[in-house]
Amino acid sequence: MAGVAGRLARRWCSGALRSPLQVTRFPALQLHVCGPAMRASQKDFENAMNQVKLLKKDPGNEVKLKLYALYKQATEGPCNVPKPGVLDFINKAKWDAWHALGSLPKETARQNYVDLVSSLSTSSESSGQVTPAADRKQPGSDALVVTSQDGITTITLNRPDKKNALTPQMYHDIMLALEAASKDDSAIAVLTGNGDYYCSGNDLTNFTDIPPGEVEDRARSGAVLLRDFVDCFIDFPKPLVAVVNGPAVGISVTLLGLFDIVYATDRATFHTPFSHLGQSPEGCSSYTFPKMMGPSKATEMLVFGKKLTAREACTQGLVTEVFPDSTFQKEVWVRLKAYSKLPPNAMRISKQVIRNREKETLHAINAEESSILQERWLSDECMNAIVNFLSKKAKL
Fold first, then answer.
1. Is residue 250 within 8 Å of 201, Cβ to Cβ?
2. Which of 184, 192, 249, 296 has the fewest CB atoms below 10 angstroms from its CB?
């Protein structure tokens, strides 16, 4: 899944559905409209359109869709264009948003557009005044934060608003971070998440905006990206620790068999819904899971998508130890700092002794899993399952 990866970077304002906005992901959508107390003039409407371009803070995709729908309703009236095809995710989301406004009068739509832009401008100005410069993220560091302190290199997934879902760029960034961590002065490396989730797996919008003629190429390049990504975990020479701070889904779960230690909060869950999405296991889990928990328990997770609690995952060998959520961070980091003071070369050599005899097998399993997934991504079963998933998500 990692990589049938199209980036939603196109303008939304194209073809027959033209607006002044850009929207980059497929969101959940709710539209709320109400009658205005007064009517906005055409000049007010034009000023609001210009104000959108000056917003300092991204309002998010749901709001962008509302703006798009109100703009179309205000300028063209009720939606009367054909509904886009089911696989045309972006235009279908736009069409649904516009169509949901029904027969809302142009004047009301115009006023609602002006009111919404006004509220966004106020919010943007307010947030801009209270954000200290020291807290602002540097360009390129938004989705992944890498720090090194006390002998520990920490790689933090940093898309809390998206439940730390992985994008293709994050795959590349994590590989670079692991490569750097393998050569720096740290004794151990840690992967964790920011926010309530550890990681919700792959961002399924990676599957959207793929031109029909490029599907096979994207599947092929996605399989290569996945294989290279998992290989980095197989080959990482230092002790590698997962600090699972919340729910984990998909590849963030399957990779855990390649970590040396997995610590989890008691509110974490572990879910691999591959069959639900018409896909198959990855991350060497087809080998590591049966070895850890036995074929029957592995089948429950990988084939039937059973979700495990942290305690269940610990009992089955996927998790090393579970901590109360209230003390999770404190207890785990005290322990990791103690580990980081152990002789680093001794730890590396000990890991080699434990892991090296299986490396060749793991690389072969990874290559096979990636190849099978490439075929699954091209199947009607997989495409239909993802379409159904995204459609349900959009209706939430």
1. yes
2. 296
d(CA 269, CA 273): 13
Token representation of residue 193:
């998440």
Beta carbons within 10 angstroms of residue 180's beta carbon: 15
Find the helix or strand (DSSP H, E) in which 199 lies.
none
Residues 102/78, Cβ–Cβ less than 8 Å: yes
**Distance between CA atoms of 361 and 347, rounded to whole angstroms?**
22
- With beta carbons less than 8 A apart as the criterion, state whether 258 and 288 touch: yes
In the DSSP assignment, the letter for residue 337 is H
Bridge partners (DSSP) listed for residue 202: 166
Q: Distance (Å, rounded) from C-alpha 73 to C-alpha 67? A: 10
Say whether 346 sits in a helix, a strand or coil. Answer: helix
H-helix or E-strand spanning residue 264? strand 261-265
The 10 Å Cβ neighbour count of residue 394 is 17
pTM across the whole model: 0.66
No. of helices (H) and no. of strands (E), the chain:
13, 9
* 260-301 tens-digit pLDDT: 999 999 999 999 999 999 999 999 999 999 999 999 999 999
CB 276, CB 382: distance < 8 Å: no
For residues 110 and 45, the answer to whether their CB atoms sit within 8 Å is yes
- Which residues neighbour 255 within 8 Å (Cβ) at sequence distance 6 or greater? 230, 233, 242, 283, 285
In 3D space, the residue among 95, 113, 151 whose CA is nearest the CA of residue 33 turns out to be 113
Q: Which residues contact 25 (CB under 8 A, 6 or more apart)?
A: 8, 61, 203, 205
For 108-159, how does the pLDDT look when each residue is reduced to its tens digit (9 = 90+)? 888 888 888 888 876 554 444 333 333 333 334 589 999 999 999 999 999 9
Q: How many CB atoms lie within 10 A of CB 217?
A: 12
Contact in structure between 210 and 386 (CB atoms under 8 Å)? no
Report d(CA 83, CA 331) in Å as an integer. Answer: 54
The DSSP code sequence of 11-36 is -S-BTTB--S----S-----------
Distances (CA, A) of 151 to 25, 89, 184, 261, 342: 38, 45, 10, 17, 10
